[in-house]
Write a structure and sequence with these properties.
- The protein has two domains: 6-18 and 275-365, Aspartate Aminotransferase, domain 1 (Alpha-Beta Complex); 30-271, Type I PLP-dependent aspartate aminotransferase-like (Major domain) (Aspartate Aminotransferase, domain 2, 3-Layer(aba) Sandwich).
- The protein is 35% helix and 16% strand.
- The protein is built from ten helices and 14 strands.
- Helix 1 packs antiparallel against helix 2 (44-66).
- The radius of gyration is 21 Å and the shape is globular.
- 48% of the residues are buried.
- It binds pyridoxal-5'-phosphate.
Length: 366
């Protein structure tokens, strides 16, 4: 059953594609999603209603992936927009603070740093030799902490956070905002362990460039994003009235990116056909092999060894990632490299032979 055939994807034959942490390939079946969208697009009101119906299907698929409900979800422009929406929903007071790890993703760090002008302190927790310790995040929190942002799998290091442990230890008054951009699609992501979940859809979910946000309404009773619009609100009696609609939809300001939503449905159908346990084991096994091989070559690894602390990405530090990535691409190996590190990612189409080929190539490169 795994790996899946490279032939399911566009342009993947003969390519060692380890760049999903940046951009995975599209499925050949996405062409049909485009056809269906364009057919609906020309059908006036009935076709437009189909766009929203497709959104409902996708929300249901996302709910099954995350143990949340379809009503919790919003289909928005991108993951970063989701982070900004959640941050904007907090009623900030001078003297409040937020917590984030120094190695976490820029959109989270920037959104929280931006609050300085409102008198909110962003507490940046230093990772210990690139490893984020949950106890350090918790120690940075106090009675004035309002929000903590954390990536489930870190984009830079590949470390996977134990969300259960974090969510069970954090003060429930603190908004726990989890970014699952590097896990959703290949690893189990339990939405019960967060207040809000965001993910970009163009990475491990195998879709195009859009984003999802979920509001876990069982854990967090309030969500009032500052940016609102016709799709997330309902009128009252007066022209000046605004009433948020139920659930995550209140974060959908206007139209979703409907074409991307059709594409996402195809990706989620494809992933849903693979048993999630098998998918998780496959990815962790192969990423483990990749990590062991890179370690043998003496590379300065950023990704933890333990199976429980890593996901689909393996990263190592490198002085010149751009050259390494360019040379590898010339030999049909696709990697992702920037900010002093190179990242290799595993997805369903990556074969053991790809990992061997890459490791042999690396040995010669060094
Ligand atoms: C953890 C994380 N969150 C968000 C993003 C950006 O996604 P988007 O463009 O959908 O906001 C990235 C991109 O690399 C990421 O690594």
């Amino acid at each position: 059953m795994l790996p899946k055939s490279k032939d399911d994807f566009v342009g993947l034959t003969g390519v060692c594609h380890l760049a999903t942490g940046g951009q995975p390939p599209l499925l050949k079946s996405h062409a049909k999603a485009y056809e269906q969208f364009s057919f609906d697009k020309t059908r006036g009101m009935a076709g437009y209603a189909n766009h929203w119906a497709m959104g409902s299907v996708v929300k249901q698929q996302l709910a099954s992936l995350t143990n949340l409900t379809a009503e919790d979800f919003a289909l928005i422009g991108n993951a970063s927009e989701g982070i900004a929406r959640v941050v904007s929903s907090v009623d900030w007071r001078v003297g409040d603070n937020t917590v984030v790890a120094d190695v976490d993703y820029a959109s989270g760090r920037f959104s929280l740093a931006r609050l300085a002008s409102m008198g909110v302190e962003n507490r940046v927790v230093s990772a210990d030799d690139n490893f984020i310790k949950i106890e350090d995040l918790l120690a940075a929190c106090d009675a004035r902490t309002r929000l903590l942002y954390i990536s489930h799998v870190n984009a830079h290091t590949g470390q996977r956070i134990d969300l259960k442990r974090l969510s069970e230890s954090i003060d429930p008054n603190i908004v726990l905002l989890v970014d699952a951009s590097h896990s959703l699609g290949v690893m189990p992501v339990d939405g019960n362990y967060c207040d809000f979940l965001v993910a970009s859809t163009y990475k491990f979910l195998l879709g195009t460039h859009t984003g999802v946000l979920a509001w876990n309404q069982r854990r967090k009773k309030e969500f009032n994003p500052l940016s609102v619009g016709w799709h997330g609100g309902a009128s009252g009696l007066a022209a000046n009235d605004y009433n948020p609609v139920r659930g995550g939809q209140r974060a959908e300001i206007g139209n979703s990116n409907h074409l991307d939503v059709y594409m996402l449905r195809t990706s989620l159908d494809y992933l849903a056909a693979i048993p999630s346990d098998a998918l998780e084991s496959y990815v962790l096994d192969l990423a483990g092999k990749l990590r062991r091989g890179l370690q043998k070559l003496g590379l300065p690894l950023l990704t933890p060894e333990s199976r429980n602390n890593r996901g689909p990405n393996v990263s190592f530090q490198h002085d010149n990632p751009a050259t390494l990535v360019r040379r590898a691409a010339a030999d049909k190996i696709l990697l992702w490299g920037e900010a002093g590190r190179v990242r290799a990612s595993v997805h369903v189409f990556v074969e053991e032979d790809d990992v061997d080929y890459f490791l042999d190539w690396m040995a010669k490169y060094l």
